[in-house]
Amino acid sequence: MRGAAGGANLLALRSHNTALVLDLLRTAGAGGISRLELAERTGLTPQAVSKITARLREDGLAAEAGRRASTGGKPRTVLRLVPEAGHALGVHLDRDELRAVLVDLDGAVVGERRSALDLGAGAEAVVEAVARAARELVADTLRPSEGAVGALGGAPGPSGGAPGRSEGASPSPGGTSGRSEGTPPSPDDTPHRPDGPPPPPDRAFAAVPGFLGVGVALPGPLDHVRGVLHRVTGFPEWDGFPLRDALARRLGVPVVVDKDTNAAALGLAVGGEGGSFAYLHLGTGLGAGLVIGGGVHRGARTGAGEFGHQVIQLDGPPCTCGARGCIEALCLAAVARGDLAGAARVLGAGAANLAGLLDIDLVLLGGRTVAAAPEAFVHGVGAVLDARARREGGHDGAVPVRLAPGGTRGVAEGAAQLLLAPLFGRGDV
């Protein structure tokens, strides 16, 4: 963390130190933590901790949580995070469903909205669906007063208009919807109404206390750094579309875009899953989120985790990506004919490949299809990994397989962490 002259970047250093303190306040929970403990655990001086906590209290991000007895002195004041001082929105765009969650600074879900979606309907329809869901969720959950901006800031401007109505259809696990013909999006165009200029930024978020922005997670491949989609499997018309910038202009707030599997893996890592693990997501498609050494592994071009398109049968059935014999095609075909044991074996073969390549500690399973039959998939994938471990010998045993916590909203919660994690110094996760 160095400036141009080689010295410490004081602004960045202050932010880093504040993030350290905020993260300890978050992990301490409602019981709180004393300033002395903060100094001991961060390595900061007591004076620095006092200045940081004073600013946090002034901004409404920290508050007293009572007093705690100390050895040989007066009771110490303990401080806690104020979760309601800030919020982030996480959006999961699946091929046939939109799920949005509003979370507080603690990552707790305070509101949720779910609606049907056709990812093939075109950029304008999808961007407007996100804007509508976000506006409704904020209005229904927080009912903010106009002009009230929280300690962490928020988009300036007046409150947005009245929310529209969401559809509440719930697609079946592993299913796909028919794609309507939409105008192929252009990388240079912001989605616009055909009969007028582009809609103005939505200002409904200006009244949300400490609104950090919107994290959006969807199937890849995509460029996480630039927020640009590539050839989303089954939806080639999205290739090159700048989704992050289009949504940021429409919503008037910061937007971060990532793959659904990476977002879920981030949420799991922040939530306490340590070490190195693979999150395998089986829903309308199949992908992987990889956490190596505690951090999300996105690869040199943010394309890591395209797990579903490993070819494991050279003469296998065609896949929507254009290849043949992909794990995704084989797995979803087995699900479609009701052969869950067969689907689990295919998924297990892919998981065994990952375990052999990356030497991971754990495999976590998630997604709508897994959620519909968790025991079948956990048992089936585990059996393949057990067989691999027996063949190889050794004393460590098989890589364990578990159902990922968070259920079917794990991706949306992870998308919100794309905004929250950097606030707590977890941006490298």
UniProtKB/TrEMBL annotation:
<feature type="compositionally biased region" description="Low complexity">
    <location>
        <begin position="164"/>
        <end position="174"/>
    </location>
</feature>
<dbReference type="Pfam" id="PF13412">
    <property type="entry name" value="HTH_24"/>
</dbReference>
<dbReference type="InterPro" id="IPR036388">
    <property type="entry name" value="WH-like_DNA-bd_sf"/>
</dbReference>
<comment type="similarity">
    <text>Belongs to the ROK (NagC/XylR) family.</text>
</comment>
<dbReference type="InterPro" id="IPR049874">
    <property type="entry name" value="ROK_cs"/>
</dbReference>
<protein>
    <recommendedName>
        <fullName>Transcriptional regulator</fullName>
    </recommendedName>
</protein>
<dbReference type="Pfam" id="PF00480">
    <property type="entry name" value="ROK"/>
</dbReference>
<feature type="region of interest" description="Disordered">
    <location>
        <begin position="146"/>
        <end position="206"/>
    </location>
</feature>
<feature type="compositionally biased region" description="Gly residues">
    <location>
        <begin position="150"/>
        <end position="163"/>
    </location>
</feature>
<dbReference type="InterPro" id="IPR036390">
    <property type="entry name" value="WH_DNA-bd_sf"/>
</dbReference>
<dbReference type="InterPro" id="IPR043129">
    <property type="entry name" value="ATPase_NBD"/>
</dbReference>
<dbReference type="InterPro" id="IPR000600">
    <property type="entry name" value="ROK"/>
</dbReference>
